[in-house]
TrEMBL record:
Signal peptide: none annotated. Coiled coil: none annotated. Transmembrane segments: none annotated. This is ApaG protein. InterPro entries: ApaG-like, ApaG_domain, ApaG_sf.
């Protein structure tokens, strides 16, 4: 698991390998990840949008941007957490993801960016 704290918001990411399958005559590697966003600050915050950069070992890069996470724009009270799971497909057995969330502080109405730490994606048998 990787973790990073930005302005009182702790982001933790745990990954898993979900398997392989063929799509459009190409081998696809499926990975899952669970993100926990913990408000360690004193103010109520809301996650507004996300920005992901997904890279694989073949130098393919995909950028994903959008509102919220899995259809939600969670409001996170001080001392509380929001957790969600999602996934991605790679054309190689290795890759990485990183990014950020755009959030707003309800007390100051200030928008700010929370970094998502870079994390590795790897198919277990490819490690040998």
């Amino acid at each position: 698991m990787v973790q990073q704290v930005t302005q009182g918001i702790k982001v933790s990411v745990k990954t898993s390998f979900e398997g392989t399958f063929y799509k459009d005559y190409k081998m696809q590697y499926a990975f899952g990840y669970t993100v926990t966003i913990e408000n360690q600050g004193k103010d109520v915050v809301q996650l507004l949008s996300r920005h992901w950069r997904i890279s694989d070992a073949l130098n393919n890069v995909e950028v994903i941007e959008g509102d919220g996470v899995i259809g939600k724009k969670p409001v996170i009270l001080p001392g509380e957490k929001h957790e969600y799971s999602s996934g991605c497909l790679l054309l190689s057995p290795f890759g990485s993801m990183k990014g950020h969330y755009n959030m707003v502080n309800f007390t100051s109405t200030r928008k700010f960016r929370v970094m998502i730490p870079s994390f590795k994606l790897s198919e277990p048998s490819a490690m040998n």
